[in-house]
Amino acid sequence: MKSTQLPIIPGYGEALDFWRVVGFERDRRLALRAEMKLPGEALLEFRIEALNDRQCVLRQSALFRPRGLLGLAYWYSVLPFHAIVFRGMLNGIEREALKIAASSQNMVSESSA
């Protein structure tokens, strides 16, 4: 039987790179607050919505509450890069989710054989 690494289950307040977990609902939602020094507060949220028994949609939201003019200038200067960064992040999540799903299918097939 093939062994597989289980995904990490984050806990409230736990640090993930330069983000802090501020909300978590298993298989539904992950909300993160930026820990890096910024001219404002940044939040990143992922939500999973079921379409049917076999499909779902992952929604990603980035929120920024600027502090003053410097915060606004910062947000609009990095905005063009966010599309690239977030698209790459979603592609990576999709790739890993498909690996996990394929590995789960293999484990089910092997155990029923």
Structure description:
The chain is α+β, with helices and mostly antiparallel strands and 113 residues long. It has one domain (15-112). It is 40% helix and 33% strand. It contains one helix and five strands, in the order βββββα. The protein has one helix at residues 68-112, and strands at residues 15-16, 19-25, 29-34, 40-50, 56-66. It has a five-stranded antiparallel beta sheet with strand order 1-2-3-4-5. A hairpin with a 3-residue loop joins strand 2 and strand 3. The radius of gyration is 18 Å and the shape is elongated. The mean pLDDT is 85.
Main β-sheet, spatial strand arrangement:
1-2-3-4-5
Overall 3D shape: elongated
Rg, Cα atoms, Å:
18 Å
Mean pLDDT: 85
Number of helices: 1
- Spatial separation of the terminal alpha carbons: 11 Å
Number of domains: 1
Total E-strand runs: 5
Q: Biggest β-sheet: count, sense, barrel?
A: 5 strands, antiparallel
Strand content: 25-35%
What letter string, H or E per element, gives the SSE order? EEEEEH
